From TrEMBL, chains A, B:
It comes from Paenibacillus helianthi. InterPro entries: HTH_LacI, LacI/GalR-like_sensor, Lambda_DNA-bd_dom_sf, Peripla_BP_I. This is LacI family transcriptional regulator. Transmembrane segments: none annotated. PANTHER family: CATABOLITE CONTROL PROTEIN B (PTHR30146:SF105), LACI-RELATED TRANSCRIPTIONAL REPRESSOR (PTHR30146). CDD domains: HTH_LacI, PBP1_CcpB-like. It holds the Pfam family Peripla_BP_3. SUPFAM superfamilies: lambda repressor-like DNA-binding domains (SSF47413), Periplasmic binding protein-like I (SSF53822). It comes from the Bacteria. Residues 2-56 form the HTH lacI-type domain. Coiled coil: none annotated.
């Protein structure tokens, strides 16, 4: 492949002139510019962008850490990120880590090695104290409240949002309340568990460990929950479920067995997913798309010089439909 | 930041020795290696990976072109790609292009500029003749049959798969068959349309333009189709629907209005999605996850020297459930 010296020699100009033309520098005569561009075309010259990145110190790329892309939650957040990145003409490196800490650290080391300009952590197995040292190498934005940490975040208050949902169930007269969650030890999941248990304790409501069910991620998991509920001697009157897909599975399976919803079992979803609209599931909208786009906007501002960490809280709201 | 010369000076060794240590070259004495590593630690030296990429000519990254990530189809393919990339310790650059040709060409130009080692095109608005010139710059794999083109592909035969589904409906006695599709002009969609029209013509079945409905992408679109069908004077007896999400929307809405499925309307889905399992939708499994993982494996082999284009055809099969 032709290099810049060769182009200068063939075009009969200096290396500086070629460099100026490549970088759209104004102080080049029209004749020389034409000569350089013609030569470039003749030689089918392409710039090695790695050299450009080395010189400019920027790569135009941001890495995104998430456990899996094939889930409604993460693909909506990724959609928001990707649209904002496209607008800013930035590239996203998708790092699907399956929550393996070593893989997540590798991504943070890309920041250290200047392979990327910033990192967005949508969800991670890493503790904040493991993330913090990497702030020295470039901007990091997480989708969980970073509090006093030196990196930025955009988040919803899972505790308040979940309590809001529980209050709503309570206001509709429900006292025996069950709960479906994804990963038992996930950081947002842990916050929701606290909200659930605090709420029951404060209101003096019964807590039955059988009514708190983990590892509910897909529609089928919801269907399995429905079958378990139907087999219980003492069943909750209402369920709060993190994820409308899981709620959809529960509702479809429960109705198949003749259980009427909301009369015999009220169901409150979470995430405001399209399947929830279709089945008229009462749910909590938590602005997942906006979380992705805001996370990108914040990392992009940091890349372009804004240095103070930002914590942006997103709103949530209950969408009343017909399952509570 | 410290550079390699500074490390050599402080460690009291040559630049060559530092370089050998950084690249795990065997011919370095233990003492010198220790001195270099200690100095690196002292100086908190990090390699600029752009320099490494410039020297090695490889970036360890593959770009993925797709229109949107927030769709079941694309997120499953991406999942397959991401798992295979993680195994190979490669990074994926997600290029969500919204089918804008200029954006797609920018990604192909990244190959030209050596910013990436290869490209996987999951779905594109570009014609094959626009893709072909970029094969000169590195490996390209598409998820549509590339035929005699000089790049690789992994694909399902949409024509045969769709006809197989139509044959199945026909074998169950259905003669008035309707069809729901996504983008009217999508390349796979166009193939399925031909399959549909050829099938009707060959079997001498009635074709009613009202029964061929486009722009069906989400659950709600399926629900809208159900309402349209209910309003028709003459309704099809069976629908073939590209995408189980759309089929789910149709089925739920149709049942809400008292239409019994499959007795009054048979429904055949496509893609074998989780919602289809839950609603017991008869569908065609087309191995989307395998498409992603195979596409990555092929591009990875090309990066490591295999130069002949590969076309890999994936199997499809009907999954009999209860909606036909």
């Amino acid at each position: 492949m032709a290099n810049i010296k060769e182009i200068a020699r063939i075009a009969g100009v200096s290396v500086t002139t070629v460099s100026r033309v490549l970088n759209n520098h104004p102080y080049v005569s029209k004749d020389k510019r034409t000569a350089v561009l013609k030569t470039i075309e003749q030689l089918n010259y392409t710039r090695n962008m790695n050299a450009v990145h080395l010189i400019t110190g920027r790569t135009g790329a941001v890495a995104v850490i998430l456990p899996m892309i094939n889930s409604f939650y993460f693909s909506v957040v990724m959609d928001g990120l990707a649209q904002a990145a496209l607008m800013a003409q930035y590239r996203l490196i998708l790092c699907q880590t399956n929550y393996v800490p070593e893989e997540e650290l590798k991504v943070l080391n890309m920041l250290r090695n200047k392979e990327i300009d910033g990192v967005v952590i949508v969800s991670t197995a890493l503790k904040p104290e493991m993330i913090e040292p990497y702030c020295a190498y470039g901007p990091i934005v997480t989708c969980q409240n970073s509090g006093e940490r030196p990196y930025s975040s955009v988040y919803i208050e899972h505790y308040a949002a979940f309590r809001h949902g529980l209050d709503y169930l309570h206001s509709k007269g429900h006292r025996k309340i069950g709960y479906c969650e994804g990963r038992e030890n996930g950081s947002s999941a842990s916050i929701r568990q606290s909200a659930f248990q605090d709420f029951l304790a404060e209101k003096g409501l019964p807590f039955d460990p059988e009514w708190m069910i983990f590892d509910c991620v897909r529609e089928e998991d919801g269907a399995e929950v429905a079958r378990r509920l139907l087999d219980m001697r003492s069943r909750p009157e209402a369920m709060i479920i993190s994820g409308d897909h899981v709620a959809a599975g529960l509702i479809i399976e429960a109705r198949k067995h003749g259980l009427s919803i909301p009369e015999e079992l009220a169901v409150m979803g979470f995430d405001n997913q399209p399947i929830g609209r279709l089945l008229e599931i009462t749910t909590i909208d938590n602005q997942l798309y906006q979380m992705g786009s805001a996370a990108f906007e914040i990392v992009h501002k940091h890349i372009h010089g804004s240095s103070l960490p930002v914590t942006r809280k997103l709103e949530y709201r209950i969408i009343e439909r017909s399952t509570v």
